[in-house]
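Hello again, I could really use a second opinion on something today. I owe you a coffee for this, so here goes:
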Amino acid sequence: MTGFNILPLAVALLIGIAALGSCLGIGLVGQKFLESTARQPEMVDVLQTKFFLIAGVTDGAFIIATGIGLWFATANPFG
């Protein structure tokens, strides 16, 4: 096979963009969680449950993107 293979670049972008989005998302949700618990301390239990649920879903998207990227890197389904 001759030419420039862009698969490693695509995998790096897939994992990198997903990691950046996940970190920013969890950071913003954590910021709003701390702000809301400072305003209404009696709502900590309800808000903490929702925070962990949202953080898990956001992190799950990154884990799925990493798995797909590693699958492309090792199996190369397009080749």
Q: What stands out?
A: The mean pLDDT is 87. Residues 7-39 form the longest helix (33 residues).
